[in-house]
TrEMBL record:
Alphabetic keyword roster: Aminoacyl-tRNA synthetase, ATP-binding, Coiled coil, Cytoplasm, Ligase, Nucleotide-binding, Protein biosynthesis, RNA-binding, tRNA-binding
Protein's name in the database: Alanine--tRNA ligase
Organism of derivation: Periweissella beninensis
Cited function: Catalyzes the attachment of alanine to tRNA(Ala) in a two-step reaction: alanine is first activated by ATP to form Ala-AMP and then transferred to the acceptor end of tRNA(Ala). Also edits incorrectly charged Ser-tRNA(Ala) and Gly-tRNA(Ala) via its editing domain.
Location of the protein in the cell: Cytoplasm
Keyword Nucleotide-binding: yes
UniProt EC number: 6.1.1.7
Upper lineage: Bacteria, Bacillati, Bacillota, Bacilli, Lactobacillales
SMART domains in the cross-refs: tRNA_SAD (SM00863)
């Protein structure tokens, strides 16, 4: 077997399948595009679903790729096993209804064993097959694999529910007796069993059935091949590594981490090795995720990044690494992957800035978490208990990012245990909530044989013509069946030999219009989509009978089309303005272009400041006023890139691409319609800027007449404000509002001061009413104040006067609002009385809940009628 680097292995895999007629699909963003079923791209096939479900027919039915992927369903195992990762690369070859088992199996064997390719020893390779898949077994035998190297395994059937499914065959590499972790006669000591010796390196799925909603399996009209070879695993074989971490994909990160710690080295102990592995794995995942536009947050992808980053920081502390250190690992990750992912190194400054901010934030949070953990340990010991509850351990994990094992280690140092069962219950409930929140859409659609096999030639002519006087109706599809006629009142799909109607794509909605004949309207075009083989598929409301092989006139609604085109041009200008003003790391995350407005989603960390929004708006209007020409050309990808054209979503483009240029301001790969000159937009106005998810912002904007109407609306509102504030001129409105605000603040200050004095007077009266209960002194009363701030002020006064051991105050501060505060003196706390416990006991009576420190706690409620009962309950609690 050859000595190969990870980069050489990846390159050789792709080149091999390219030599077999496959197109190399570039690795796409980790953030799924137009796929609500996935949080991350999690496999090589995930980006190809549109081909496998038949919604799009690829230019080449043979595809190969090396796809970066993230899986987060078992983060806790990372570092503890030899091959668990969050970020990994899956190499694969795919056939979309082209070749099948008879090619896939011999090619796999050729790549693995041929001297010019991987040159593995055939004697070290074993395969498993599905017992009923005799075809696969026969082909392996014909390929030259001995019978004693083929094992039948019942689990070799790939099925994810409804959609494509089928048997699979797996290939294993025998790493030798030195990797034996089981006895020779152990039933799991075979290729396919749970052991360390036989390592699975490739899985080939024969996607030949459709798993139906009725839970039956029907032959697919087009059988497919879907394979997956994990790069990290294969590299460990070539580099004779005990685990994936002792390879050139991870060791440079580990060695850098060694230099940042307190002298601990990788290999010193199993405990510290876990920390090195966690740091190396998570540094890769965080770096790639941020490079692709994801950002740390408290939800979705952002939560995953935050969790990974915090877990790495905690393991860094275990190695004696303090302060911000992950920033130093980002360039190392970039250099390792530079041959195939140069963008990571190019974006390293931006990635470092995001990681640095998050590390700093967590280092502050970490102190709070450790404080809470120490308090929990102290409380547990004070109660003579031996176990920390699972709920507390989960809170430390969920709120502060403490992995369970870290809490357990701290507990063990104090001779305590942690309730693992309780922790697992909370963790499972969180996972169930996450699953319930996911889209219930199918993970992969079912092929439509009719549309997939429909190769009717159809040409789009809408770039230059919006009216076609002679378009032959070639196909009518009604309820999934081809018909010759469509009667009045039906809604059908139709294909013409040529059409001026634009099909929805890239966020731009489809054209609308009519189908006519001899000045009569035969149908209304209400939507247009791309059929799997690229034809424009029109959805039509039939107003008069339509027949195939008949010529019709097609008329696009030109007003609708023009306004959509202008707004589409505006999205390109907005995209460029965002990159110019906010930075090149800003990338498109989605868009919608309609006649009324445009919506543009983009990656950015935090709200865009108003000053920046003003700059963006001003730059776009400057380019509109400059009357820049808008032109497009068709060229090859290399020439387009030399022109500086930007590709969005790392989409797959054909050999010929369309590049739209807006003067010298912007150039993008694009398939939509546009204005001919920026002056046609008239005016650009931002309507709103908001956050829609983790690290994703949304701008909604209008152009032309809609922008003018918006500005007139704002002007009318300003006039109304001027009238209400009695500003002499519109230009005086701001100063007038500021003056009124200052007056209001002064009145509020005076009101607060007066309310505080009244509350102080009331407090003096209640401080004289002290009850003694169970050797503790208690002041408990309802008091007339306006809010919690005044209750806290009274509690401070009570504390300074040492008026009693326990203070309970309640105030009705609204029709259905109650504020409650409980305070304990030092004497009471020393006797194990806690304000938080008392609040929890009586807050439900006033329809609320709350908590706090042992010496001070507060709550809010919605049941004022329960105040007197709660005050009695407070006295009863003290008497218990």
């Amino acid at each position: 077997m050859k000595e190969l680097t990870s980069a050489e292995i990846r390159s050789m895999f792709l080149k091999f399948f390219e030599s077999k007629g496959h197109s190399i699909e570039p690795s796409q963003s980790l953030i799924p595009h137009d796929d609500p079923t996935l949080l991350w791209i999690n496999s090589g096939v995930a980006t190809l679903k549109k081909y496998f479900d038949g919604s799009v027919v690829p230019q080449n039915k043979r595809i190969t790729n090396a796809q970066k992927s993230i899986r987060t369903n078992d983060i806790e195992n990372v570092g503890h096993t030899a091959r668990h990762h969050t970020l990994f690369e899956m190499m694969g070859n795919f056939s979309i209804g082209d070749y099948f088992k008879e090619n896939a199996i011999p090619w796999a064997w050729e790549l693995l064993t041929a001297k010019e390719w991987f040159a593995m020893d055939p004697e070290k390779l074993y395969v498993t097959v599905y017992p009923k898949d005799t075809d696969a077994k026969d082909i392996w035998l014909k390929t030259g694999v001995p019978l004693d190297h083929i094992f039948e395994v019942e689990d070799n059937f790939w099925d994810i529910g409804q959609g494509p499914s089928g048997p699979d065959t797996e290939i294993f590499y025998d790493r030798g007796v030195e990797f034996d972790n089981l006895a020779a006669d152990d039933p799991e000591n075979y290729p396919g069993g749970e052991n360390e010796r036989y390592l699975e390196i490739w899985n080939i799925v024969f996607s030949q059935f459709n798993h139906t909603p009725e839970d039956t399996y029907e032959e697919l009209p087009h059988k497919n091949i879907d394979t997956g070879m994990g790069l990290e695993r294969v590299v460990s074989v070539f580099q004779n590594a005990k685990t994936n971490f002792e390879t050139d994909l991870f060791l440079p990160i580990i060695h850098t981490a060694e230099k940042l710690g307190s002298g601990v080295k990788y290999g010193d102990s199993a405990v510290t090795d876990v920390s090195f592995k966690v740091i190396a794995d998570h540094a890769r995942a965080v770096t790639f995720a941020i490079s692709d536009g994801a950002l740390p947050s408290n939800e979705g992808r952002g939560y995953v990044i935050r969790r990974l980053l915090r877990r790495a920081v905690l393991h860094g502390r275990k190695l004696g690494i303090n302060g911000e250190f992950l920033t130093k690992l980002v360039p190392v990750v970039g250099k390792i992957m530079a041959s195939y992912y140069p963008e990571v190194l190019e974006n390293s400054d931006y990635i470092i800035s995001v990681v640095a901010a998050e590390e700093k934030r967590f280092n502050e949070t970490l102190t709070d978490g450790l404080k809470m953990l120490n308090e929990v340990i102290s409380d547990t010991k004070a109660k003579n208990a031996k176990e920390i509850s699972g709920l507390v351990a989960f809170k430390l994990y969920d709120t502060y990012g403490f992995p369970y094992e870290l809490t357990e280690e701290y507990a063990q140092d104090e001779a305590l245990t942690v309730d693992r069962t309780g922790f697992d219950v909370e963790m499972n409930e969180q996972r169930n909530r996450a699953r319930a929140a996911r889209s219930d859409n199918k993970s992969m659609g079912v092929q439509s044989k009719l549309l997939t096999d429909l190769h009717t030639p159809s040409k789009y002519v809408g770039w230059t013509e919006l009216n076609v006087n002679k378009a032959k109706l070639l196909n009518i599809i009604e309820n999934g069946e081809l018909v010759k006629k469509a009667t009045t009142g039906k809604v059908v799909q139709v294909i013409f030999d040529q059409t001026p109607f634009y099909a929805e794509m890239g966020g731009q909605i489809a054209d609308r219009g009519t189908i006519e004949n001899d000045n009569e309207i035969f149908g209304e075009v209400v939507d247009v989509q791309h059929a799997p083989n690229g034809q424009n598929l029109h959805t039509v409301k039939v107003l008069k009978e339509l027949s195939i092989d008949t010529d019709y006139q097609l008329r696009v609604d030109q007003t609708f089309h023009a306004q959509v085109s202008k707004n589409h041009t505006a999205t390109h200008m907005l995209d460029q303005a965002l990159r110019n003003i906010l930075g090149k790391h800003t990338s498109q995350a989605g868009s919608l272009v309609t006649p009324e407005y445009l919506r543009y989603d983009f990656s950015f960390n935090g709200a865009v400041p108003q000053k920046k929004l003003d700059e963006i708006e001003a730059l776009i209007n400057e380019k509109i006023n400059a009357s820049l020409p808008i032109e497009w050309i068709e060229t090859d990808i290399e020439s387009a890139q030399k022109l500086g054209a930007v590709a969005v979503f790392t989409e797959k483009y054909g050999e010929t691409v369309r590049v739209v240029s807006i003067g010298d301001f912007n150039a993008e790969f694009d398939g939509g319609t546009h204005a001919k000159n920026t002056s046609e937009l008239g005016l650009f106005k931002i309507v709103s800027e908001s956050g829609i998810g983790a690290g994703i912002r949304r701008i909604e904007a209008v152009t032309g007449n809609a922008a003018f109407k918006l500005m007139k609306q704002h002007e009318r509102m300003l006039v109304q404000v001027a009238q209400l504030t009695k500003a002499p001129q519109l230009t005086d409105t701001v100063s007038k509002v500021q003056m009124l605000q200052e007056q209001l603040k002064e009145l509020e200050r005076q009101n607060t001061s007066l309310a505080t004095k009244l509350a102080s007077q009331a407090a003096n009266a209640i401080f004289d009413d002290v009850k003694t209960i169970n050797e503790h002194t208690l002041i408990a009363a309802k008091i007339d104040v306006t809010g919690m701030d005044q209750l806290r002020a009274i509690a401070d006064d009570w504390k300074s006067k040492e008026a009693s051991d326990v203070l309970v105050l309640m105030a009705q501060t609204g029709a259905e609002k109650v504020n409650l505060i409980v305070a304990m003196s030092k004497t009471a706390v020393d006797k194990n009385l806690k304000a938080g416990d008392l609040v929890k006991a009586i807050a439900p009576i006033i329809g609320g809940n709350g908590g706090g420190r042992p010496d001070l706690a507060q709550a809010g409620g919605k049941n004022p009628s329960g105040i007197n009962e709660a005050l009695i309950a407070a006295a009863d609690w003290l008497a218990r």
